[in-house]
Structure formats: structure tokens, C-alpha cells
Amino acid sequence: MKLLIINGPNLNLLGLREPAIYGSQNYATLCENLQKWAKELGHEIELFQSNHEGVIVDKIQAAYGNFEGIVINPAAYTHTSVAILDALKAVAIPTVEVHLSDISQREAFRQFSFVSLVAKKTICGKGFDGYREAMEWFAEGGQ
Ligand code: DQA
User: Fold this and answer.
1) I need a labelling partner for 59 at 20 to 30 A (CA). Which of 11, 46, 90, 126 fits?
2) Which domains does the chain have, with CATH numbers?
3) Contact (Cβ atoms closer than 8 angstroms) between residue 98 and residue 72
4) Whose CA is nearest to atom 13 of ligand 1?
5) Distance between CA atoms of 12 and 136, rounded to whole angstroms?
């Protein structure tokens, strides 16, 4: 399948950023893993990272008609962005939400996700493997 994989703000700083929570591997290593898993699972992927809400909205809008699935870690925008929720609803591309950490076990402000309102599936607390699980879900037909 053709999948768009979106990572939100500060995920470009993986490795440096709070390694006790997000791990010691960097964003480039995440991208290498994603490409390797895509090959294994028969997906064609595009990787996209931005620190800017509107840029992420533009990318989701541009995905319409071009991608069959979206895997998104909206990072901090998970908890704040009605705009990203609305963009995902507008394009109606099946979406899986991924978080490296288990947001349900963290601060109260992280426990609500706007994106969960549209995501077919949410995967939390599995580190990089969460993205693999999302890609497997699409490979298995998205059920
Ligand atoms: C995150 C969790 C968010 O609360 C946080 O703002 C992030 C990363 C995660 O992957 O665990 O930036 O989405």
C-alpha cells in the first residue's frame, strides 16, 4: 500500500530528547527502520516530519487521492490540534495514530487525543515498534 508516515514536532530530536521517555535512537534511525519494514511488508512509503501545525495540515490535504493510508505521530499536536483532526476527517484516508510513549500513563494533559477521534487504531508505548505494528495493520487489510 501507499502510506504517508507523518511525525510531528520535536520528533526530529529523537535520541537527544528525553531519552528515558523516547529512547536513545535518533530520527534517522527511525526512518531507516520504517523503510526496512515497508520493504518487508510490501508498502511504498513517504516519510514526513514537521514542527509546524499548518504544514502538517497542508501535507494531509495533499495526501488526498495520493495515499491509501496515513500513519501519524502528531506529537504535541495530538493534544491540541482540531486543525489536524479536521484535515484527517476531510480527506478520510484511513489513519493509524502512533505514540512512542504510553500517553495514558503520563501527565493529565497528554491523556486526551484529538486524533484518536478519527484514527482507526491507536498504538502507544511500544517505541519504534509501534510504527511497525501500524504498518502491519495496513498490510493485514486494516481490520
Ligand atoms: C508523543 C507523546 C506526546 O505527548 C508528546 O508531545 C510527543 C511525543 C509520543 O510519541 O509519545 O511529542 O506523541
Assistant:
1) 126
2) 2-139 (3.40.50.9100)
3) yes
4) 75
5) 24
